Amino acid sequence: MSIEGEHPRNGSSSEGSESQSWLGSLISRLRLPSTQTLRDVLEHTLKTEAKSEDELSAEERNMMLRLLHFGRLRVEDVMVPRADIIALDENDTLGDLLATFQEAGVSRIPIFRETLDDPRGMIHVKDVMNWLIKQAAIGPGKETATSTIQTPQSARQESGTADGVTGLRGLDFSKVDLTQPLTVAKIRRPVLYVPPSMPAMQLLVRMQATRNHMAIVIDEYGGTDGLVTIEDLVEEIVGDIADEHDEAEEANIVTDARGTVIAAARTPIDELEEYLGIKLLQPDQEEEIDTLGGLVFALVGRLPAQGERVQHPSGIVFEVLEADERRIMRVKVDTSLLNAEGNGNAAAAGH
């Protein structure tokens, strides 16, 4: 049964007819206009200001709205783009792996063979720690070495060392050769492979069922398009989840003391449009361009160089402040010519 309230096709089973009858009865009781779906009405109701203290709080309303919106999202809407994927080659060393975990502050790292287009799975930080402990175990009870690990305080008291790590009883980390390739440890786990068009809700259900919390997004040519974790999906519903290791993220758009607008290239177009109060995309561009970087790229017709400037039909001038050979990072948004010479919302919207 669809929440949108579509009618079943001709020739459907009696079960489908019963579902239609039940849904039709529900919609009738809710007095929904024929042009509106149940989802539309729920969203409209949730966006309406509360009229009494007994109604839903603002936080509850926002979460329910995000949940309804989540039902419309596809994997490509929530994935980490290819350019931002932190990954390692299977021939990189264990030392490289530990350093990457420490620098990136993530718990899972995808592994590839020679190129990101040949993903081979992922490694979880917990598996790395378990492997290191087994390798560092000394004495006849190597398999139970983990049971001898104590708190740093008790370890210092018994060993007389000052760091509480090298003095842990039953472990000698100097035995671990961190120059070995990742393949030696045999701690790689499988990942899911999904298309960009897959509904985000469907991927969340699949991750729950398989207990596999990382998916590689594969494009129509078999190449790697992006990466999605279960945290990316859950954050679309509950909002950003920051743990003890997450650094505070900078806002996508900032205005400095001189009134200059600086935006990250990853800024969603609708966020920038709301910030500036102007329509930036024409109707035929809305399905193709998602971010400010994509808009600048489309205006120039190629990857622009750092320092390059390009003018939007509205009069806004975009200046690339930071870029490399693969992508744009930061853009200055100059609105001083906005609406000049008749340019404005109408021009930008293609009216």
Task: Give a written overview of the molecule.
The chain has helices at 14-30, 38-47, 58-70, 75-78, 94-104, 125-136, 152-159, 182-185, 200-210, 230-238, 269-276, 292-300, 345-349; strands spanning 80-81, 88-89, 108-113, 115-124, 192-194, 214-218, 224-229, 253-255, 261-264, 309-311, 317-323, 328-334. It starts with 13 loop residues before the first helix and ends with a helix. It is globular and about 70 Å long. The model is unreliable at 1-16, 144-168 and 341-351 (pLDDT under 50). The protein has 3 domains: 14-75, no CATH class; 79-189, CBS domain Like (Alpha-Beta Complex); 253-349, 2-Layer Sandwich (Uridine Diphospho-n-acetylenolpyruvylglucosamine Reductase, domain 3), CATH 3.30.465. With 351 residues, it is of the alpha+beta class. Helices cover 34% and strands 17% of the residues. The strands form 3 sheets. The chain has a 5-stranded antiparallel beta sheet with strand order 8-9-12-11-10, with helices on one face. The longest helix has 17 residues, at 14-30. It has 13 helices and 12 strands.
Amino- and carboxy-terminal Cα gap: 40 Å
Kindly identify the CATH topology of the largest domain: CBS domain Like
Largest sheet: 5 strands, antiparallel
Average pLDDT reading: 78
Strand line-up of the largest beta sheet: 8-9-12-11-10
Range of strand content: 15-25%
CATH class placement of the largest domain: Alpha Beta
Total domains:
3
